[in-house]
Amino acid sequence: MAKAIHSMIRVLDEQRSLDFYSKAFGLEVTERLGFDGFTLVYLSNSESEFEVELTINHDRIEPCALGDGYGHLAVSVDNLEAEHARLSGLGLNPLPIKEFMHQGKLLAKFFFIQDPDGYKIEVLQRGGRYK
Fold first, then answer.
1. How would you classify residue 91: left for phi > 0, otherwise alpha for psi between -120 and 50, otherwise beta?
2. Tell me: the pLDDT tens digits for 26-68?
3. Closest CA to 87 of 123, 38, 59
4. CA angle, corner 66, sides to 65 and 68, nearest 5?
5. Has this prediction a pTM greater than 0.70?
6. Which of 28, 47, 83, 122 is catalytic?
7. 122 tagged catalytic
8. Within a 13 Å sphere around the CA of 104, how many CA atoms are in the beta-carbon half?
9. Whole-Å CA distances, 47 to 39, 57, 62, 107
């Protein structure tokens, strides 16, 4: 059976991205691999083995165009309201909390936040299918 292990995103400024992902989600560098022309930085925390892989192309001077194909990354938290308040207090500008209904029942409670390169991250209240 396949196991999801990481998702890769291209970022313009490594330090700016490291600061954001550390503050926002407690993700820290698990490995940094330098190559000719690019660097790979793997981030994770103790909540999951899943990693976010940052790819930094050394010759890039402008952010990547995200286009309309990228959706979002998603994380779950124990206390959505507290996490929203914490991120707001850090000046990271999360969008308002929303509720998503399915067949008259609450399926998800969530908000979105964007990283410095414009990638969207969905923050979901843990529970149900969102563990």
1. left
2. 999 999 999 999 999 999 999 999 999 999 999 999 988 888 8
3. 123
4. 125
5. yes
6. 122
7. yes
8. 0
9. 25, 29, 33, 22
